[in-house]
Every structure is written in C-alpha cells, then in structure tokens.
C-alpha cells in the first residue's frame, strides 16, 4: 500500500495538476548526489564546512562569523573527539569540542543541518505517537502572491499577520477544542523569477478521524488567510493560496514524507531548489562560487530578514503531550556529541587545522582516533595526546563536561538577559 495525500479543496473544482503533485509528493528530489553513502556524507560535510568558512567572510551576523572557528576556552584550545557508533544511524562520528556555535537555523550551513536533523526526528516521533493513539494528520500549505519588487521583510510581516488571522479565528479555536486539533507550523523560503517566495506548511494533528470536517475547515482557513493577507496589502488566489492534503494509506510512509518535508522546510535541504527557484542556501552557494553582487545582496537580505523568524512552531501543549522536551535551536547546535578524547589542539594547531577542519573530522571518523592523530602527525602539528586532567578529573561523571558550566550559566540567566545577549550576538557587523 502506498501513502497518498488527498487534496481537500476550498470550494473550487480541483486543478488538474493536483493529482500529479500528490503522486510525486513523496519522492526525494534527485540532485547531483551520486556515489556511496559515505562518499555522499563526506561530500556533504565538506560542502557545509567550506560554505561556513567562506560565509564567515561575507556574513552580516557576528556570531555566524565565529561559528566553528573561535574557541570558547581561555587558551584557545580545541578538543578533537571520536564516537564509535553514536552517529545518526549508529555509525561512527567525530567532531570538535570547545568551539563557538552560532545556532543559526537560517544562515549557518552546519548548525542548520544539525538542528534540522533533530527537528525532523521530533516530527517523526509526533507522527508515530499520533498514529499510535489512532489519530489522523493533514498537511496544510498556505502561499501568497508576490513579485520581484516585494521586500522579504514585508512578505514575512504579511505572512505572519495572515497566519495569526487564521489561528485566532473562531473556527480554528473551535476545531482545537472540539476536534482536539493541534499543529506544527513551518515556514519555507525560496527565491525565483518573481522574487522571494515565502509559504507556510502546517501539519494538522487530530486525535481521531476528521474527514467530515475537513471541507469546512479548509474553507474557513482560506477565508481567514485571504482576509489576513489583504489587510497587509497582499493577496492569494484560491487555486494556489491554500492546499490541504489529508493523509490516507500507510501512516508510516506518510510520516516519512512529512518528516522529509519538515527536514526540507527546517532548512535541511542543502542547496536543492525546484522549478527554477533557489533555496537560501543555494543562493549562498552561488554567491560564494561566483561572487555575483546580486547573489551577495540577496543573501544579506536573507540573513537580516530571516533573523529571529521561528521555523517550527508547535501548538501549545503538543510537545508535552507526546513527551518531547522543549529545546531551542542554540542548545541543539551547542550540544556536544561527546565521545572519546582524541587530542587537545593548542591554539596554534587549531589555526592550521581550521581551514581544512573537515579533513581531520573525516580522517578521524573513518579511521578512528589513531587516524586522527596520524593526520596531525603527518602535518607536523603539535597536540596533547593525554587529556589535561588537572581540573577535569572531577568532572568525569558529568554527562557533558566541557559544556556543563555553560548550561548551568544559561539556566541561571534570566530570560531578558538572555534576549539581550542574543541581540548583542546578532547585531550586524556593519554597525560595529
Ligand atoms: Zn553555526
């Protein structure tokens, strides 16, 4: 049995293209990926690390410029670690400890991938939990008309206002209370011939069968969405503005489709655009490859306008209901994968390693700690083989020794203080 998503129209006859989009909805886009799993993994890692390094030169966000480069330790040292079999799929992994991470979902190729992977797992968990309680899901997409003269910041304002207009409606609230509806809403952005295109994907979660109600729900969403847009000077056409698909068929496949979508929506889609449009990261790649002013300007606009935009918003209480912990993007990006100590790299070694850091990671993850140290030896780079145990010995039982102090400090900080700290980090480079 294959999974299918059946479109619920908002009162107009379904378009001919709907069947096609539903039929191809679950397919993974095929890009320039070829070769074995590990070749692809290595290539993806290289691309992301290289992009982050080059991004450091052009970014307007200070913290992004420091991500994966600046040490958090007083002496400037960095620790290389190796984990046999704790990777995403039970495979070995390697990484650095003690570095600043930016936690920027929208602008950082490395943090974005890490955060998106976690968010996709959370959604998978949600789908499984909902299926186990006999629930159903629907996928809602909302778009707005746009042209190349629209500024991204204005589109974002219009989109947010229209979405608020939908979720504050009486109908929406009634479905929440009567049908037990919950949702996770995501935002996706692309850029094409008609400028920036923002749209909303929302996963609607119901504890039971709501087939009967879907028509009314779709019609109401459309009415509120279009009114909300008009109030901000935007509009949408009924044929393209709203799209609701109800999941039928194998829930497991549907779940896979939705989490794939979530992964893409949450920024995990590295560089793949469709229909001639580009994702922000594709624009970044082009900006770095070809250094065209237009791409550089688009990327700068993206960084500034997307900053602070919440990617995935879960309805109140939903995470708690399915027993997921609240965890913010920055914390995910800061999370240390742990693993065994391989080497402590003093500042002068790290400065040499940084331009090719991905090579050391790949060497270590492929060949283990010995290979990592051999890589350093071959380049005549100094490192400490033994962990400096003088003060860390007492921390051995902590789950995450290098970051325990940071977590404790963050937990003790009051929210306003934390917001101010973030504002400082993200203050644009030009203003300094
Ligand atoms: Zn980052």
Count of helical regions: 17
Q: Give helix % range.
A: 40-55%
Bound molecules: zinc ion
String of helices and strands: EHHHEEHEHHEEHHEHHHEHHEHHHH
Our Rg estimate from Cα atoms comes to 23 Å
Mean pLDDT: 80
**What's the total count of β strands?**
9
Strand fraction equals 5-15%
Main sheet makeup: 6 strands, antiparallel
Largest sheet, order of strands side by side? 1-7-4-6-5-8
General form: globular
| Secondary structure category | alpha+beta
Low-confidence parts: 12-33, 389-402, 428-432
Distance between the termini: 59 Å
What would you say this structure looks like, in words?
Pfam families: Rep_1. InterPro entries: Rep. This is Protein involved in replication. The chain has 432 residues and is of the alpha+beta class. The protein has a domain at 4-15 and 110-332. Helix content is 49%, strand content 15%. It has a six-stranded antiparallel sheet, sandwiched between helices. A three-stranded antiparallel sheet has the order 3-2-9. α4 runs antiparallel to α9, α5 packs across α7 and α10 runs antiparallel to α11. Residues 12-33, 389-402 and 428-432 have low confidence and may be disordered. The site of zinc ion has 8 residues, from α4.
Entry keywords:
binds zinc ion; globular; 432 residues; disordered C terminus
Topology:
Blueprint: E1 4-8, H1 16-24, H2 37-58, H3 62-66, E2 78-83, E3 93-97, H4 109-132, E4 136-143, H5 152-167, H6 170-178, E5 182-192, E6 195-206, H7 214-231, H8 238-241, E7 242-248, H9 251-268, H10 280-290, H11 293-306, E8 312-314, H12 318-321, H13 329-334, E9 340-345, H14 347-353, H15 357-378, H16 401-412, H17 415-426
Antiparallel strand pairs: 1-7, 2-3, 2-9, 4-6, 4-7, 5-6, 5-8
This protein binds zinc ion.
């Amino acid at each position: 049995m294959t999974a299918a998503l059946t479109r619920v129209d908002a009162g107009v006859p379904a378009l001919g293209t709907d069947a096609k989009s539903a039929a191809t909805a679950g397919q993974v886009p095929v890009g320039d990926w070829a070769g074995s799993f590990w070749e692809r993994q290595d290539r993806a890692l290289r691309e992301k690390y290289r992009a982050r390094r080059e991004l450091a030169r052009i970014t307007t966000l200070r913290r992004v410029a420091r991500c994966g480069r600046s040490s958090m330790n007083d002496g400037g040292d960095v620790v290389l670690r190796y984990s046999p079999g704790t990777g995403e799929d039970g495979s070995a992994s390697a990484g650095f400890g003690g570095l600043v991470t930016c936690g920027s979902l929208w602008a950082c190729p490395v943090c974005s991938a890490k955060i998106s992977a976690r968010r996709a797992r959370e959604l998978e968990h949600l789908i499984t939990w909902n299926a186990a309680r006999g629930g159903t899901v629907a996928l809602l997409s909302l778009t707005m008309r746009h042209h190349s003269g629209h500024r991204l910041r204005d589109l974002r304002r219009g989109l947010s206002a229209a979405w608020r207009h939908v979720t504050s409606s009486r109908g929406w609230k009634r479905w929440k209370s009567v049908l037990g509806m919950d949702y996770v809403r995501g935002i996706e952005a692309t850029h094409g011939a008609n400028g920036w295109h923002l749209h909303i994907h929302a996963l609607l979660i119901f504890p039971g069968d709501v087939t009967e109600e879907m028509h009314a729900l779709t019609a109401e969403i459309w009415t509120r969405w279009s009114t909300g847009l008009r109030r901000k000077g935007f509009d949408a056409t009924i044929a393209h503005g709203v799209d609701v698909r109800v999941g039928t068929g194998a829930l497991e496949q549907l779940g896979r489709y939705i989490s794939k979508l979530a992964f893409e929506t949450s920024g995990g889609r590295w560089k793949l655009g469709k229909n001639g449009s580009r994702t922000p990261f594709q624009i970044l790649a082009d900006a770095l490859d070809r250094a065209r002013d237009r791409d550089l300007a688009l990327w700068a606009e993206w960084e500034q306008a997307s900053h602070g935009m919440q990617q995935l918003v879960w309805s109140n209480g939903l995470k708690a209901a399915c027993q997921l912990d609240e965890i913010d993007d920055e914390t995910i990006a800061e999370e240390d994968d742990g693993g065994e100590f391989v080497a402590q790299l003093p500042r002068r070694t790290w400065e040499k390693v940084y331009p090719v850091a991905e090579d050391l990671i790949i060497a270590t993850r492929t060949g283990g700690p010995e290979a990592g140290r051999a890589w350093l030896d071959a380049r005549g780079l100094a490192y400490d083989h033994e962990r400096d145990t003088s003060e860390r010995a007492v921390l051995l039982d902590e789950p995450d020794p290098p970051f325990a102090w940071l977590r404790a400090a963050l937990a003790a900080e009051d929210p306003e203080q934390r917001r101010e700290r973030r504002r400082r980090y993200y203050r644009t480079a030009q203003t300094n």
